[in-house]
Amino acid sequence: MSDIPQCPGCASDYAYDDGLQFVCPECGHEWSKAPDAAVEEAATVRDAHGNPLADGDSVTVIKDLRVKGASSVVKVGTKVKNIRLVEGDHDIDCRIDGIGAMKLKSQFVKKA
Fold first, then answer.
1. Most exposed among 2, 45, 94, 100, judged by the fewest C-beta atoms under 10 Å?
2. Is 65 exposed, middle or buried (0-12, 13-18, 19+ CB in 10 A)?
3. Collapsing DSSP states into helix, strand and coil, what is residue 33?
4. Alpha-carbon dihedral angle through residues 12, 16, 22, 26, given to the nearest 10 degrees
């Protein structure tokens, strides 16, 4: 019996070992061989300077950010309090005074 797990994407038994990862030929899904602890460590959200962020932290914007669909701009130095970390491309969910609810990328903030 093979020690290669089923594909987490489609549950196929035809996954194969490709060096540092497993690959499913049926759906094209690729996943790491690393243990779950290493995956969780890689999944931590970090600011522009590499500091880990957590729910409830305060951050400062390090670059002028245009707000899509509006003529306003989030200026450099704007302090954002009580952030929430979420999954996805924009990994910070927050509320900015004068603008409202927004999603930010962690690469444009630093921990305050």
1. 2
2. buried
3. coil
4. -40
